[in-house]
Amino acid sequence: MSTSQHPLHAQGVRALTAALKNRQVSATELARHFLDRAQAHPELGAFLAIDEAVTLAQAQAADARLATGSAAPLEGLPLAHKDIFVTKDFPSTAASKMLAGYRSPFDATVVQKLAEAGAVTLGKLSCDEFAMGSGNENTAVPAVGGTTARPVRNPWHLEHVPGGSSGGSAAAIAAGLVPAATGTDTGGSIRQPAAFCGITGIKPTYGRASRYGMIAFASSLDQAGPMARSAEDCALLLSAMAGPDGKHDSTSLDVPAEDFSRNLNDALDGLRIGIPKEFFGEGLADDVRAAIDAALREYEKLGARLVPISLPRTELSIPVYYIIAPAEASSNLSRFDGVKFGFRAKNYGDLNDMYVQTRSQGFGDEVKRRIMVGTYVLSHGYYDAYYLKALKIRRLIAGDFQNAFKECDVIAGPVAPTVAWRIGEKSQDPLANYLADIFTLPASLAGLPGLSLPAGFGAGGLPVGLQLIGNYLQEARLLNAAHRFQLATDFHLQRPAGF
């Protein structure tokens, strides 16, 4: 079945929504096609939950609305949600044993907004447990088609990681199991897996999309965003996802929703692209550097001007992030105690022992590591020395960006120092995983919007992502810059063999 010479799973959001509105394909046919695709590729481990009855019922309701001329922008479009968003109709586990089988009584605001825009939910996608990880190897819930928990695999090379923590979303899109998905980005968890899997993903300005119903990791950093094949598709999704939610989320920005696709085709003549010298120093792999340099030359052909800039505190972003994020995680995850909901240990003595046994058995190693680090830096005698100092440096990092934006409109560089590594290669070295976030953490700490787009291929034919960072509320500018690049190149159209 296809709407053109391309199969349905090779088409993006724009093409599929047009086909639905033109009645070239029904929402039910489309949902059935992607459900079959998802269930045909259990080797990826991308899906944690599928419920055909729920999905097909949503698709049939979308078909009924389409028959009456529905104007909803995403009517009938199938997509899937990272299992960090709570959903009424599917389990919400955060890929953790602590929440295995948990059913939420409500939908996250982002889920609700996409449903109101007409989207049909295919299921829930794997992630690192409680969104803590850089490779989607920290998953404690079995994927659909399996009986034991296992890492998600990169469809470009099944022995390599897809990136994390939104690796299930990135892998599913790259393999054509879904046309689009939601992700979350705390320190790079949309941008890095998008880069590793050769798709497009954007982390909007902190507060652009509601955090209500997003299972919290680090509240001052967590942000929802869309992942899809192209910048155009991400713009359509973000337009539906974003908007104020003051009733439920005190950190939600009181900024009206907007059409992020409005400036997609604007010319890039005169666009000043800042190139931070700190993003191109020691540690950046030669194959990644070559792809990024070629992409920047393409931008010059499109009329942009490259401007050298400095972000002098880039190297401090890792220690700052890995103090602030674990501190917030230790507080947020204190609610998982075996009393109110979720997993509870079967054998224990008194109440304190129940807490100890439940949390020891329910949390994975990486989650426990971050809880312990966070509790330590918040403890008496260390709060000022570590946590308070990290907050001060975070403000300085944000100031570095504002100084840079006096000289440029957009900042560009690599998303990660290398292409995707082999599964298990860094599992015994947490610091090596943390260092992979060096280029994504600064924008997260500053609360700035950041985007990853496919920019070529490196060692082993694995994708390389180009990162674009904008000033606050400049998502439309980033999407315009990415879209114009994608009109001139075809990296985002390349597909992994066998999918």
Automatic annotation (TrEMBL):
<dbReference type="InterPro" id="IPR004412">
    <property type="entry name" value="GatA"/>
</dbReference>
<dbReference type="Pfam" id="PF01425">
    <property type="entry name" value="Amidase"/>
</dbReference>
<feature type="active site" description="Charge relay system">
    <location>
        <position position="82"/>
    </location>
</feature>
<dbReference type="GO" id="GO:0016740">
    <property type="term" value="F:transferase activity"/>
</dbReference>
<dbReference type="GO" id="GO:0050567">
    <property type="term" value="F:glutaminyl-tRNA synthase (glutamine-hydrolyzing) activity"/>
</dbReference>
<keyword id="KW-0648">Protein biosynthesis</keyword>
<comment type="function">
    <text>Allows the formation of correctly charged Gln-tRNA(Gln) through the transamidation of misacylated Glu-tRNA(Gln) in organisms which lack glutaminyl-tRNA synthetase. The reaction takes place in the presence of glutamine and ATP through an activated gamma-phospho-Glu-tRNA(Gln).</text>
</comment>
<dbReference type="GO" id="GO:0006412">
    <property type="term" value="P:translation"/>
</dbReference>
<dbReference type="InterPro" id="IPR036928">
    <property type="entry name" value="AS_sf"/>
</dbReference>
<feature type="active site" description="Acyl-ester intermediate">
    <location>
        <position position="189"/>
    </location>
</feature>
<dbReference type="InterPro" id="IPR000120">
    <property type="entry name" value="Amidase"/>
</dbReference>
<feature type="active site" description="Charge relay system">
    <location>
        <position position="165"/>
    </location>
</feature>
<dbReference type="GO" id="GO:0005524">
    <property type="term" value="F:ATP binding"/>
</dbReference>
<feature type="domain" description="Amidase">
    <location>
        <begin position="29"/>
        <end position="479"/>
    </location>
</feature>
<dbReference type="InterPro" id="IPR023631">
    <property type="entry name" value="Amidase_dom"/>
</dbReference>
<protein>
    <recommendedName>
        <fullName>Glutamyl-tRNA(Gln) amidotransferase subunit A</fullName>
        <ecNumber>6.3.5.7</ecNumber>
    </recommendedName>
</protein>
<keyword id="KW-0067">ATP-binding</keyword>
<keyword id="KW-0808">Transferase</keyword>
<dbReference type="InterPro" id="IPR020556">
    <property type="entry name" value="Amidase_CS"/>
</dbReference>
<dbReference type="GO" id="GO:0030956">
    <property type="term" value="C:glutamyl-tRNA(Gln) amidotransferase complex"/>
</dbReference>
<keyword id="KW-0547">Nucleotide-binding</keyword>
<comment type="subunit">
    <text>Heterotrimer of A, B and C subunits.</text>
</comment>
<comment type="similarity">
    <text>Belongs to the amidase family. GatA subfamily.</text>
</comment>
<keyword id="KW-0436">Ligase</keyword>
